[in-house]
Amino acid sequence: AQKITQTQPGMFVQEKEAVTLDCTYDTSDPSYGLFWYKQPSSGEMIFLIYQGSYDQQNATEGRYSLNFQKARKSANLVISASQLGDSAMYFCAMTDRGSTLGRLYFGRGTQLTVWP
Amino acid sequence: DSGVTQTPKHLITATGQRVTLRCSPRSGDLSVYWYQQSLDQGLQFLIQYYNGEERAKGNILERFSAQQFPDLHSELNLSSLELGDSALYFCASSPTVTSGGLANTQYFGPGTRLTVL
Questions:
Q1: pLDDT by residue (tens digit) across A88-113?
Q2: B113: which residues sit within 8 A by CB, 6+ positions away?
Q3: Antiparallel, parallel or unpaired: β B5-7 and A64-69
Q4: Contact B102 A102 (CB under 8 A)
Q5: What tens digit of pLDDT does each residue of B29-70 get?
Q6: What is the 3-state secondary structure (H, E, C) of A24-89?
Q7: Which chain A residues are closer than 8 Å to B97 by Cβ?
Q8: Are B101 and A33 a contacting pair at CB < 8 A?
Q9: How near does any CA of chain A get to the CA of B70, in Å?
């Protein structure tokens, strides 16, 4: 079963606007971690933000925030004040105590394009 | 810069050949993970090592093997290469082996792009 679903293959946003990238997850484990990574065209994977399943507040990291809705099993990434350098592929990922400790399950990604 | 290094950055080889990809984890990290990224499969977990010992296996082919050395660097060996093995191979590291947690965030190296002709 797909652990992480990202339904938006591509998103477009104008510079300085906010954008939300969707992510839903599937796990029966009450303890899990949710991550977002950014992959620019150069190829490297850059860690952006983390949300733990027991965290009471939504995670924030600079212009990145995570809209965590536990009951809906969603962990959407919000990027505020988009910049041209935000154009990249964004991956949602999860770890749980399932079959393999520590491994990341990735979604298929969302390609974000920021236009001037 | 994540602190994880991978060499080589690019590798072009022929079918049937064998290659070795190398990874050095961040200073202090004991756990190393290998992932494969391809257009059709996306990002797939291959294998995990912790302090020199194999801890978990994912979708790793029998033609592939890995090891982690006493200095904690890791190597991924790919043999009898096929066209379908062409992909971006990532190494990631984290401090421990337990699941989840911000403290155990995996940081990725720049990847090795393998092209099999």
A1: 999 999 987 654 557 899 999 999 99
A2: A43, B9, B10, B11, B87, B88, B89
A3: unpaired
A4: no
A5: 999 999 999 988 899 999 999 999 998 899 899 999 999 999
A6: EECCCCCCEEEEEEEECCCCCCEEEEEEECCCCCCCEECCEEEEEECCCCEEEEEECCCCHHHCEE
A7: 101-102
A8: yes
A9: 21
